Structure prediction request, 350 residues.
Amino acid sequence: MTPRVSVICPTYNRGPAIAETLQSVRAQTFGDWELLVVDDGSTDETAATVSMWAQRDSRIRLVTPDQRYGHPAIPRNIGAAHARADIVAYLDHDDVWLPDHLRRTIDALASADASAGGYEHVRPDGEVISRSSLLELVWHPEIAEMGPLFEPSRVAVRRDVLDRAGGWRPGAGLEDWDLWLRITDVGGRFATFAARTTRLLQDVATRRYRVVRPHRLVLARFDSPAGAVRCRAALEAPPVQDQLTRAAVEDVTRWYRTLDAHGDLVLPAGGPTDLDELLATVDITDLTGVLQELHLLQRGTGVELSMPLWCASEEGAARVSTRLAQVHRRQLRLIAGVVRDLGGVPLALS
Prediction:
């Protein structure tokens, strides 16, 4: 009998610890699934552990590619090639689901091509260190361009949309955001739910902490290093930071209301059904700032003031930069004013 959901779990040298992840799938209140664990050439007990669990539960299958890839993208594609269901859900080998994750996923997919739910970040000892907010789960194609919204373990997607998007592509990092963008570009739409049904491991040894950010949003150019240093200090001063935060809140609130007025904004199920009510329940300042960390780089005879972007490709950097310039106009005008006062040339405004 064909399962309703194929769960794909790429793994490498997780050993007996992968049992917690497997058990979290077996504990789902929605039981019509298959779990494909794709072992990317482990040299420890991972394959033996998965095989033992597969003997206990026929819904679990171990997939062993004929070579090691050293990147989760290709194992995820291999898992999809073996999948029998029309819905593909992802679960990384060091994350776990709470028992109602798949049930809520199926409900969300009733009106969408892909889904994502809330999360908890946990330390290796299980301590919860942060939780998703409702604002993180608001979705729109434009919002999807601004950053890596959803980790793989929170996402499920319909197989036909996944195929149209072209599957996973290896890269230096953020390949999940790359795929979600391509799903959006082929017309796929996400639905989200507020329940925090995924527990994501936060550990400096995990791959997400090794993502390189080679691309930048250039904010200004200075003829002298001294001017650039003074500008960075001015922008990082508390009074200016307060002004920038207020401007960012105005920018994002206006943007979200514009998107909502067009009828395309997706609010998370289980939360407020009105945007203003949702905005009143969250701390919007945590998610709105253009300025994260400011870098000074020598370029020819001048110095650039820039901010690293969360993207791994030139195309992604171009999309983020364009959208930031469109959305954060108040904030960028304030930055431009500080830059001019200190003798620089502002570059980020379109």
Summary: Residues 238-261 form the longest helix (24 residues).
